[in-house]
TrEMBL record:
Stretch list, region Disordered: 1-27
InterPro entries, sorted: Alkaline_phosphatase_core_sf, Phosphodiest/P_Trfase
Molecular function terms, GO-annotated: hydrolase activity
Transmembrane feature ranges: 34-55
Low complexity compositional bias, start-end: 10-24
SUPFAM superfamilies: Alkaline phosphatase-like
Name of this protein: Uncharacterized protein
Classification lineage: Eukaryota, Viridiplantae, Streptophyta, Embryophyta, Tracheophyta
GO cellular component terms, A-Z: vacuole
UniProt source species: Anisodus acutangulus
Length: 470
């Protein structure tokens, strides 16, 4: 092959398809520069072709958009597991690595800028709005504590341990579910201990609130329900964690201890996911993870004292039903609520009351309509809206405290919580606009294919969040 040795190396590379012994015409004499271009082009084409093949194969496996809901693999009926992480302010999920919540988010549907609570942005009014689809004026739990002047409740006081059904109006999801002959279970939820309609808070499926029960035990109990015979597995389950609300009140939303509380809740979601995976039902369960409200930092200098209004009007302590973050006042019937409102606002606007500009007082009928906070005798006649992070107290004291609070106007971003839906009825990797939590009731009844009670949610709303039936 002495001849070959004389050829330039590059043309030798191109001679592979040329039979030197054949009588076919000699290949054109390609210059080294042109050959280099050709080689580069071929290599680029190969890279593009492989890249296309790789991209198209990966998109067909995990990025194909969901068009219809996915069929159940193991469960015999749809199941909704509703999880509340109390006081999980929207944005907490970015404080630290939350791999388990991220697993729900990336494989599910998330309210991109959070879930909007109802007013007042307090625990009981919101949890009960979530399960009834009603605003507090209609579901009856207008505050965590209130007096009802109505004879039907004997003028008594409601508190967070009032289990008499006379307080709890509307039809909560567990009642709707059992009314349809399905099973429901509640591992804590405000109102779940109350006997209503067909719901009798059965011992095995209904836990009476006890904040000291470890989170792990709550998760294990819910997981054990999936070990029951298929027709015994509840169609609707609740699970409740009191964090990060507990620490939020103590240290405010920006303390490192909140980050730890968020990690703890994420760890519980991880334990739940692993347990569902071990049982082969993770893909079948519709998990809705949400919170009832957000949290904002409060501190000493942001205070408004009612005693400062004395030159305009005296507001005795026993007229006050709650000070903060919702000021509610029930004066004796002999007083004109309208006059009281006028005088209070005169004082607040005078510039002579410390932080007066951060409190606005209304007759409840004159509150902005968007708050839906007037159509109940349980709501006192006078309501004060307090600006974010401010607090109202009766009189000045030397008490110094900083922490966190919620209950303010639901228009404040800091009061928002989270919504994540993951399961056969939720599209994967989908973001939806924020919505009010009164829409959740219709979402759950739609997933379970049952007729819900009438409520303040929009009938067409579930179509905008859920996948249509397969
Ligand atoms: Zn709460």
């Amino acid at each position: 092959m002495a001849e070959d040795d004389e050829e330039p190396p590059t043309s030798k590379l191109l001679s592979f398809d040329t039979d030197s012994s054949s009588k076919s015409p000699k290949p054109p004499n390609l210059t080294p520069k042109l050959i280099l271009i050709v080689v580069t082009c071929v290599a680029a084409a190969i890279i593009i072709a492989f890249g296309f093949l790789f991209f198209s194969s990966s998109s067909s496996s995990s990025h194909q958009p969901d068009v219809v809901s996915r069929p159940l693999k193991k469960l015999k009926h749809p199941v909704v597991l509703l999880i509340s992480s109390d006081g999980f302010r929207f944005g907490y999920q970015y404080k630290t690595d939350t791999p388990n919540m991220n697993k729900l988010i990336t494989n599910g549907t998330e309210a991109q800028l959070g879930l909007i609570p109802v007013f007042p942005t307090l625990t009981f009014p919101n949890h009960y709005a979530i399960v009834t689809g009603l605003y507090p004026a209609y579901h009856g739990i207008v505050n965590n504590y209130f007096l009802d002047p109505d004879n039907t409740t004997g003028g008594e006081a409601f508190n967070m341990k009032s289990y008499d059904p006379k307080w709890w109006l509307g039809e909560p999801l567990w009642e709707t579910v059992v009314n349809h002959g399905l099973k429901a279970s509640t591992y804590f939820w405000p109102g779940s201990e109350v006997n209503k309609g067909g719901w009798t808070c059965p011992q095995f499926f209904c836990k009476v609130y006890n904040g000291s029960v470890p989170f792990e035990e709550r998760v294990d109990t819910v997981l054990n329900y999936f070990d029951l015979p298929s027709d015994e597995i509840p169609s609707f389950m609740t699970l409740y964690f009191g964090e990060p609300d507990h620490h939020g009140h103590k240290v405010g939303p920006d303390d490192p201890r909140i980050t730890q509380a968020v990690e703890r809740v994420d760890g519980m979601i991880g334990k739940l996911i692993r347990g569902l995976e071990e049982r082969g039902v993770f893909e079948d369960v519709n998990i809705i993870m949400l919170g009832d409200h957000g949290m904002v930092g409060t501190c000493d200098e942001k205070l408004i004292f009612l005693e400062d209004l004395a030159p305009w009007i005296e507001i005795p302590k026993d007229w006050i039903q709650s000070y903060s973050p919702l000021l509610s006042i029930r004066p004796p019937p002999s007083y004109s609520a309208k006059d009281i409102v006028t005088k209070m606002n005169e004082g607040l606007k005078s510039g002579k009351v410390q932080n007066g500009q951060y409190l606005k007082v209304y007759l409840k009928e004159e509150l902005p309509d968007r708050l839906h906070y007037s159509a109940s005798g349980r709501i006192p006649p006078i309501i004060g809206l307090i600006d974010e992070a401010f607090k109202v107290e009766q009189k000045s004291s030397k008490r110094k405290e900083c922490g966190g609070s919620h209950g303010y106007d639901n228009a404040f971003f800091s009061m928002r919580s989270i919504f994540i839906g993951r399961g056969p009825k939720f599209a994967r990797s989908r973001k939806v606009p924020s919505f009010e939590n009164v829409q959740i009731y219709n979402l759950v009844t739609t997933i379970l294919n049952i007729q819900g009670a009438s409520n303040n949610g929009t009938i067409s709303f579930p179509k905008t969040i859920l996948l249509p039936n397969h």
